[in-house]
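Hello, quick one for you while I still have it in my head. Could you read through the record and tell me how the tokens relate to the sequence? No rush at all, and the record is pasted right below.
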Amino acid sequence: MAATRELHLNLNFLHAGTFASAWRWPASQPGDFADVEFYVRIAQLAEKATFDAIFLADVPSLSDQPGHRTFNALEPTITLATIAARTTRIGLIATASSSFNEPYNIARRFASLDHASGGRAGLNVVTTADPSTAANFSATQLSHGARYDRAAEFAEVVKTLWDSWEDGALVGHKASGRLVDTAKVHPARHEGAHFSVAGALNVPRPPQGRPIVVQAGGSDDGKRLAAEHADAVFTVAYTLDDAELYANDLRARLVQAGRSPSDVLIFPGLVTVIGGTETEAKRREQELWELTPIEYGIGRLASILQVDPARLKLDEPLPSDLTLPANGMQTFFRGAVALAARGGFTVRQLIRAQGGGTGHRIIVGTPEQIADDIERWFRAGAVDGFNVMPDVIADGFPAFAEQVVPLLRAKGLFRAAYEGRTLRDHFGLARPPRRAAAQPVEAGRLLQESYA
């Protein structure tokens, strides 16, 4: 008999909240986005609500429009390490750019986070489409295809490094003076188009074997990367039909890659606006919308569509000659264009439908309406859960945790307590066996091999 499916929930901790105006909301403090104590408090609440994980997105540049909106300022793994010290179960997922990092540094950082947290780390590999970020790293922006080629090699090397120590390589035998069994430590010996990595990782194999790997792109290149390397995907889906098409495509790719369709969990983003009544929820959405500068919404939409903001006329439809950007955020482009066409929206209406530029589906209603919507999508089988994206973190997330989660539990969809300790446990994914690698390092040559 097949095991009962269990709903999974992550908190997408997007600075002050998903709405651009969240920092202006009465419950928010403008400096919360850079206050690690705020992150800790919300993470502890998410753990109390038995969320699978919290997720910190990251762009290593001062991008978007900081004059109008807060942003992810703190380095995410440092923030998550702080949270790890003050929580015990909740998973800890952070973004790292494969375009502007080296795999050795990232493998070491996330292996360390996995050790520090007792097996709760997850790595979201992104290719970073923002040209302003490239300018911070003495680099030119790679093409879309080149970014994903680099990302695939990056993911392969990171996993090889996590597997460079066998389980049991750390001997620690005081009487004989033998600390590490070097026959169980293997150099990467990787020579590829983008990276050359000689040595083994200097951190023992992580508690999870390998931290969870997440992919968050909906292009063909992104889905290929997910099918080859991901344990979970973060997606955009405005309708259940969208979600089903994506799931069917990804699962077919997984089979082609020699994996099971159940090997990768699918999490679309879900923006929530909660009120005691539907009228209250709609009033809250209206007030958040009125606090969002229209110039922010135009600038955000123009960035997604890669057009001059002057071309976007507020009370007219989108320009008819838009083309998919060859080197931009293709997932959000497709989502925005499809949403506008489906709703017959003007630019102003589209910006509002996206909460001033969220790029994800928004549901406005009572806790009961939101729980019913989550149930309908989950039982359809196209999604394994959601990245919950509250309108305002400060009071929107407590409302979800305290009012929606109990309803999901009453429906028999969501756990009342954690059964395991690791993020893999929460996601229902097995600890992966270590993959075969190069010949073991000879005693006395480990240091030389690793850092040649």
